[in-house]
Amino acid sequence: MELSLVIEKFILITGIFAVSLVVAMYSTLAERKVAGYLQDRVGPNRAGWGGIFQPLADGIKMFLKEEIIPAQASKFLFIAGPSLAILTACIGSAVIPWGSNIRIGDRVVDLQVTDINVGILYIFGVVSLGVYGIMIGGWASNNKFSLMGAIRAASQNISYEIAMGLSIIAFLMVTGSLSLRTITEQQHGFWANGWFTWYAFQQPLGFLIFLVCAFAETNRTPFDLPECETELVGGYHTEYSSMKLGFYLFAEYINMFVSSAVMATLYFGGYNYPGMDWVNATLGPLWGPLIGVAVLLLKIFFFIFFFMWVRWTIPRFRYDQLMNLGWKVLIPLAIANIVLTGVWITAKHTLENSVSIF
Amino acid sequence: MESLSNRKKVLEQKPLTFMERMYLPAILKGMAITFMHMFKKKETIFYPEVQREFSENWRGMHSLKRDEQGRERCTACGLCALSCPAEAITMISAERKKGEEHLYREEKYAAVYEINMLRCIFCGLCEEACPKEAIYLDGPIVPADYLRKDFIYGKDKLVEAPLQS
Fold first, then answer.
1. Is B21 at the interface with chain A, CB within 8 A?
2. Residue of B nearest to A313 (CA)
3. Orientation angle between helical segments A276-311 and A242-267, nearest 10 degrees
4. How many whole angstroms separate alpha carbon A304 and alpha carbon A176?
5. Residue A309 is nearest to which of B31, B41, B42, comparing CB atoms?
6. Does B29 touch chain A (CB under 8 A)?
7. Among residues B103, B40, B107, which one has the least CA distance to residue B72?
8. Which of A32, A137, B23, B78 has the highest count of CB atoms within 10 angstroms of its CB?
């Protein structure tokens, strides 16, 4: 491997890390602001202009708080829990294509850390690893309420992963590829052959199932049962304090960012937007793709806002309702979606063939 | 059984229709409502800069009053301390010396008068008990502080400012 490639990837990885961390940081502020605005309040507005330094203040507060490790807790696992949670949250962004190739001089820079051909599977693997952070943390606390929260989180995530995987199978039947780069390139532009190219318009049911499952996977309302003050004191992080608690909360926001990015990439065309060919032709091979990156970020921000909007609109499910929805509604729906997609693809195929016969 | 008052309402719980069981229409409706709230007028009052208007009989911080000649009205009878259900008030009385007539109205006065604002429940019983109309709860909100000892307010904070001649 040449040195320049290593440097290029290093810069890219650092950039993506910085972006996802800053976005997660400001999601905490955005969440409170959105909550305020939806409830006719204004949200935090004292630290800096309009509360712009609030995340920094929160972070400093978190770092300065006393760190408590319960006497009976398993020390290693107690620290490993939040570390694992934030680690798995961070590595999910590696396979997401942030933009089309940039050409600087003779060099073509790929705006993606790595284009592995099983991109979606990688994301699924990382997402299911995220449960371990919560599970280990809840178990290591040596507290029944924490364990209860962790069990809730684990069973919920496992249940909804099945529906998510099944919704993705129908999606893969349409795309025919697992590589996120290929999937994004298939959604080029906005309109082709008399229909939208974005997969949300070809797989509306699949997108809906994926969206609901994404809410469950990130432990957001209406599926935020692992954190529950009324029943569980606090949830899986009851015993946590200081920055270890901060890492758990932060991991949730990074997860939100990554799953927003995945949804934008899979179903809403990633860095594609209407009229991108014209923009690329006028602005050249450097600025054109960068606008694509901005468009992708806009889509991600919309999804993050959507997450918050839903959170401050609807109350949470009861646990049996949650399990009912996951097992008795979403999984059958996802299977039905697979059948429907199969029928649709076959019908389309036969129709095209018969047209060529006539 | 037939209702005699004719006001009884029988509530029928119908099973949910398919649209209702889908949740989605209701969720979308709710989201539309919350989205409209984003553009409504905000209810927040920016407290230190803007103060909410209080009602006439609002009870805030205590003040020890002076009479029309600028003398302290309090005679340290201790009725306020006696009436206080939270036992927030203490005082030490002293006799008025010659030449102090312009400072204190009665022959006895409170040399030390302390109210513990952490104990006070702002019930206003001290105000009602006072025979000399010396104490009123007509001040602002008691401000926050860092130490418990700073919440014990002495005469320096409680007594009204002297009259401007």
1. no
2. B31
3. 130
4. 28
5. B31
6. no
7. B103
8. A137
Beta bridge pairs of residue A192? A195
- Is 60 exceeded by the pLDDT of residue A357? no
Please answer whether residues A130 and A88 qualify as being in contact, where contact means their C-beta atoms are separated by less than 8 angstroms: yes
**Cα-Cα-Cα-Cα dihedral sign, residues A215, A216, A220, A221:** positive
Do the chains contact at B30 and A42, CB–CB below 8 Å?
A: no
CB distance A40–B35 less than 8 Å?
Answer: no
DSSP B70-106: S-B------HHHHH-TT--EEEEEEEPPTT-TTTBSS
Distance between CA B31 and CA B23 in Å, rounded? 12
Q: Which residues contact A255 (CB under 8 A, 6 or more apart)?
A: A89, A92, A130, A217, A218, A219
Identify the sign of the CA torsion A214, A216, A220, A222: positive
pTM of this prediction exceeds 0.90: no
Cβ-defined contact of B43 to A312 (cutoff 8 Å):
no
A41-50, A138-147, B120-129: which is most confident: B120-129
Tell me the residue length of chain B.
165
Nearest chain A Cα distance for residue B17, angstroms: 16
Chain A CB contacts of B35 under 8 Å are 38, 309
Structural domains of chain B ordered from first start: 63-158 (3.30.70.3270)
Q: How many CB atoms lie within 10 A of CB B157?
A: 16
| pLDDT band at residue B44 using 50, 70 and 90 as cut-offs | confident
State both tokens at A269: 């065309």
Instruction: Give the separation between CA A127 and CA A117, rounded to whole angstroms.
Output: 18
The whole-number pLDDT of residue B72 equals: 87
Query: Can you say how many angstroms the Cα of residue A147 is from the centroid of all Cα atoms in its chain?
Result: 25
